[in-house]
Amino acid sequence: MVKIAPSILSADFAKLGEEVRKVDEAGADFIHIDVMDGSFVPNITFGMPVIKAIRSYTKKVFDLHLMIDEPSKFIDDFISAGADLITIHYEADKHIDRTINYIKSKGIKAGISLNPGTPVSLIKDLIPSLDMVLIMSVNPGFGGQKFISYSIDKVKEVKQISENTNKDLLIQVDGGIDSTNIKSVVDAGANVIVAGSAIFKDGKLKENIALLRESI
Questions:
Q1: 77 among known catalytic residues
Q2: What are the pLDDT digits (tens) for 169-186?
């Protein structure tokens, strides 16, 4: 079954806890939290105190996407804040194998994210030990961007590698996904879909999640 992971980057920050509760009740499988530091990407979003503050509003998986430099320095803090799954960028960590192993040693699921310009071949040897690979289908840093079409080929490549080395791998795609293109992403092999604008649009959370599922 394909999992839907609403990105709270598109939520109303003035009532973030309530927005998390509402999207949980609307049928979310994961809560996708984009952590940005203003360095690895040009925007700044949520830190540990905010994540800890909203943790009590849902029991759903807190899916943290760390778009930050040197993520290894902050793993323990994010775990303490309530992370269930931590995804770090291949481009942001000099010793990514060590960081992935450290995350997993703490009983937390670990993933690697790839920017649009980063080839899948660079993480081929790491895929057997991962819980998730996140393919960015927009350039990270802002919501509401247009889907990059060649991301489909990257999803297919990850899927092919996982069939031989890690059949339980979650393949997540994030960026520009809506009811018009979600089926092509899933058909390519994705089984976790991140959507922000497409879910929070007009405040119709339940209807928008249902539309995504119906479009697969």
A1: no
A2: 999 999 999 999 999 999
